[in-house]
Amino acid sequence: MTKFPKHFSKFLEDYPDLGQAYMSISDAVSAAGPLDRKTSCLVKLGMAVGSAQEGATHSQVRKALEAGATPDELRHAVLLAVTTLGFPSMMRGLAWVEDVLAK
Q1: pTM value?
Q2: To 10 degrees, the CA torsion angle through 92, 98, 99, 102?
Q3: pLDDT, average across residues 1-10
Q4: Res 2 pLDDT > 70
């Protein structure tokens, strides 16, 4: 089971009904299609990098590792962004991946 960051844990504590609704939506979306958990995490990693969200990128790296992704798969998912987002955005995303891998 994922250990939630303190801010999200506090949100769940302060707003349990909203937290449960959010978790239910997440579960329903995950079950709605054929992608396995690892693939879903890699897709969401790409979205996090593409939207320049550092916290979301860190979160998706942790989730992808838990789902069985290798560091090389994480790096490759981010490298694919170079032709879509550009070199600086890809490098920023790669740095955020490395932040988590270094821990």
Answers
A1: 0.88
A2: -170
A3: 81
A4: no
